[in-house]
Amino acid sequence: MLNSGMLMCLTCIVIGMLFLVAFILKCKDKRSVTGVFLKNATSIFFILTAVCGIVKNSSVWQYGIMIVIGLVFGMLGDIYLDQKWVYPNDMKQYLYAGFICFGIGHLFYIPALVTAANIKLKLMFIPVLAGIVVAVGNLLLEKPMKQKFGKYKAIVTLYSFILAAMVATAVVAAFVSKHPAFIVYAIGSVLFLVSDLVLSPMYFGEGKNTPANFIINHVTYYLGQYMIAFSVALLAK
Q1: CA-wise closest residue to 222 among 53, 11, 21
Q2: Which of helix, strand or coil describes residue 14?
Q3: What's the burial of 188, exposed, middle or buried (CB within 10 Å: 0-12/13-18/19+)?
Q4: pLDDT of 1 over the 70 cut
Q5: Helix (H) or strand (E) holding 29
Q6: 30: which DSSP letter?
Q7: Residues 6+ apart with CB under 8 A from 156
Q8: Which of the listed residues 44, 121, 153, 159 has the most CB atoms within 10 Å of its CB?
Q9: Neighbouring residues of 212: CB distance < 8 A, sequence distance ≥ 6
């Protein structure tokens, strides 16, 4: 039988997914104020999912707190990035704020994984190498992918490095520990990466901000964040 903590986690996930569906249906063709509230509600429930994981077993509080902080920064980053549609004249500031918040969130995820999965520091060359390869590759593929980073090139490159390092750390954690929590986290991190791969041409390409890409971007992003959040409950034995 499910204990109360796990039941709370699953309830948060179900409610969050309902908000996500409502948000997509409302905003896939045109953004609205109602959509902002629906989207923020979806984000609040992935934070609550992780909090419920800590409640399930306080022994994982160190990992759980770092994941919660990362999720909060993710929510803030999402809020800032959305403001560029509302205030196009201030796009630069909001884009920078969004990238910075998401980057900080990943910087909390990485040590959470390293400590909880007991990853040996000598293995951390893998995330560093992955970060470098992805960041450089992103720059080299800018023109072939018909994107134009322009004045955002530096922040995009830095963020690409941090994101790729986080995903690689999650994959290493899954292989090292073979624990369901880190396997679920790794899958979630890959979905997060897919979301950003779809989002990049929507922001920096032409003609890519389509309803289909909007749906793919948000579905993969939220599934990724919810899986990362749910890893707290799975880690709590």
Answers
A1: 21
A2: helix
A3: buried
A4: no
A5: none
A6: S
A7: 99, 138, 149, 200, 204
A8: 159
A9: none
Name the nearest CA neighbour of 98 among 82, 77, 115, 113.
Answer: 77
Is 174 in contact with 228 (CB distance < 8 Å)? no
Read off the pTM.
0.93
Structure tokens at 127: 């995330």
pLDDT, one tens digit per residue, over 56-109 is 777 889 999 999 999 999 999 999 888 776 666 777 888 999 999 999 999 999
Q: Angle, nearest 10°, between helix axes 4-27 and 211-235?
A: 170
Residue 93, CB-side half-sphere exposure with 13 Å CA sphere: 6
C-alpha of 110 from chain center: 12
Distances in whole angstroms, Cα of residue 161 to Cα of each of 11, 107, 125, 164, 190: 34, 11, 13, 5, 14
CB 83 within 8 A of CB 94: yes
Amino acid identity for residue 47 in this structure: I
Tokens matching residue 41 = 């509600």
**Among 68, 73, 58, 61, residue whose Cα is nearest residue 115:** 61
Q: Distance between CA atoms of 129 and 135, rounded to whole angstroms?
A: 10
